[in-house]
Write a structure and sequence with these properties.
The complex is a heterodimer. Chain A is an alpha+beta fold. Helices cover 35% and strands 33% of the residues of chain A. Chain A has helices at 7-33, 36-45, 55-68, 74-84, 99-105, 108-117, 215-225, 240-248, 287-296, 341-354; strands at 88-96, 137-146, 149-172, 177-196, 200-206, 235-236, 257-266, 271-275, 301-314, 317-326, 332-338. In chain A, strands 1, 2, 3, 4, 5, 6, 7, 8, 9, 10 and 11 form an eleven-stranded antiparallel beta sheet that branches. In chain A, α1 (7-33) packs parallel to α4. Chain B has two domains: 2-70, no CATH class; 73-120, no CATH class. Chain B is built from four helices and five strands; from the N terminus they run ααααβββββ. In chain B, the strands form two sheets. Chain B has a three-stranded antiparallel beta sheet with strand order 2-1-5. The chains are: A alpha+beta, B alpha+beta. The interface between A and B is medium-sized, with 19 and 19 residues.
């Protein structure tokens, strides 16, 4: 009949619409996860036109034409999302298990079978794209390999979080009441677990706007990671030594670490806290602070928390400082700002090296 | 000074014997230094002293120590200015609002203001 579309035509149309929706969500998530500069560099590295003053320009004048021309693939955009989303703005908890157990746990076949049991299929090159899932959802599994051997397993989960934001306030003089109305807001939070073949496990929980403790978030995430990663197989990696070593070696590490706060506490609950005023100041530069802390220090004293910055040095100059919060649980540290994958790996290396 | 109590719980929970022994030694040393009554042990410090590696082992250990009245739990409301402003036996006893004398203001207490420490039952 004239005007009627054949079944295969509808299918093709549906597939095009789905593809366009997927691409649109992918671009939205990339926009939310990173900066224009990072995407421009990504295009530049592929010898593609990359100048753009806004996200709109970047999308319509650079990315979409490159996809239409076949110069840019969805897989490359997924890779960009993977390397920008879920780094920083996180509380990281470190654990360890015997290497032989870790090696058995990250076997590709085992993980894929367990994921299938959870209803999660192949996601290697096409991670499940979700914005705000009703239930926390695993969207990506990655096997880090070297010479064909699996060295690490990474599982990424998207969690919808709901918080309250003050919307309006009203005073009723007659009734002598004061009313505040809060609006619910949803956020997309990314939690990640990475297990290495040497037994190290990093569990990264997305930061909350209004909480400082993450014990419950951690326990819930571990519950969802079962049985791929079982909490009872792991011991916590204490970061007590890291806090001590960084301060003790501050003179040699001056090019690498800056201290903004440092708190010592003894077993009688007495504490001594040193604070710098400006974010550019370094406590390690004050001899009087160092002397006071040394005076208080004893066998029964430990560093309970510290705010530090790891410096990234390029060509002899500090190119960037990454704020790291060392407090909370004994095996916990937090990166408070969004950073790149390379920057996260750098911070993790420093944490492990100095612990 | 707690040796009888420690023997009692070690016989009840032999799997925690090593951790209990380390806590017993720590408390004995503090008693020798005559500062047992001054100890304010937070869960993280108890974990370091006892060298237990998981939160669940720590929870069991603390339950054993408090059930035998070796340690007593104190919930402290901390002022944002630093320092404690009030102490309670349990979280349920903490009021929603109280006077923060360190700042001389009424303070709305949130879970983030609470800190748990354990003191020796001397």
């Amino acid at each position: 009949m004239p005007g009627e579309i054949a079944d295969d035509g509808i299918e093709a149309l549906n597939s095009m619409v789905q593809g366009a929706e997927k691409l649109s969500l992918l671009l939205k998530l990339i926009e939310r996860a990173t900066s224009i500069a990072v995407v421009r560099n990504f295009l530049k590295a592929r010898n593609l036109p990359h100048s753009a003053g806004s996200w709109d320009d970047l999308r319509t004048k650079r990315i979409l034409p490159a996809i239409d021309d076949g110069q840019l693939t969805l897989a490359a955009l997924y890779a960009l999302l993977r390397s920008t989303e879920g780094f920083g703005r996180q509380h990281i908890f470190l654990f360890r298990c015997p290497p032989e157990r870790a090696a058995a746990m990250i076997t590709e076949q085992r993980v894929r079978n367990l994921l299938l049991e959870k209803g999660i299929g192949e996601t290697e090159d096409d991670p499940l794209l979700v914005d705000l899932p009703a239930e926390p959802t695993f969207v990506d599994v990655r096997f880090g390999k070297a010479g064909g051997v699996v060295k690490s397993l990474t599982l990424k989960e998207i969690e919808k979080r709901t918080s309250k934001k003050l919307a309006s306030e009203a005073t009723d003089d007659e009734a002598m009441t004061y009313t505040r109305v809060y609006k619910f807001e949803h956020q997309r939070a990314i939690n990640t677990a990475r297990l290495w073949d040497d037994g190290l496990l990093e569990v990264r929980i997305a930061s909350r706007d209004n909480a400082t403790r993450y014990r419950d978030d951690l326990a819930h995430f571990f519950n969802r990671l079962k049985p791929i990663i079982a909490r009872n197989e792991f011991a916590e990696v204490s970061l007590r030594q890291l806090k001590k070593n960084l301060w003790d070696n501050r003179a040699e590490l001056q090019h690498l670490v800056k201290f903004s706060t440092y708190t010592l506490q003894d077993d009688e609950g007495m504490s001594l806290r040193a604070n710098a005023v400006l974010s550019t100041d370094d406590l390690a530069g004050s001899e009087r602070v160092a002397k006071s802390l040394a005076e208080f220090n004893a066998e029964t004293v430990r560093c309970s928390d510290s705010n530090i910055y790891f410096k990234i040095v390029e060509n002899g100059e500090t190119a960037k400082e990454i704020h790291v919060l060392l407090n909370g649980e004994d095996n916990e540290f937090a990166v408070t700002a969004a950073i790149t994958e390379e920057e996260y790996e750098y911070v993790l290396r420093q944490v492990l090296q100095h612990n | 000074m707690f040796s009888a109590k420690f023997s009692n719980i070690i016989s009840r929970a032999p799997s925690s014997a090593q951790a209990l022994d380390l806590v017993a030694k720590y408390l004995d040393r503090a008693a020798e230094q005559k500062r047992l009554h001054r100890l304010r042990l937070d869960p993280m410090l108890i974990q370091q002293i006892s060298k237990v590696s998981t939160s669940s082992e720590l929870a069991v250990l603390i339950a054993l120590l408090t059930s035998e009245h070796i340690l007593r739990r104190v919930v402290v409301v901390e002022s944002p200015a630093g320092g404690g402003v009030a102490e309670y036996d349990s979280v349920d006893d903490v009021p929603d609002r109280l006077h923060d004398h360190l700042r001389d203001v009424q303070m709305d207490v949130t879970p983030g203001d609470l800190r748990t420490v354990y003191v020796a039952n001397t």
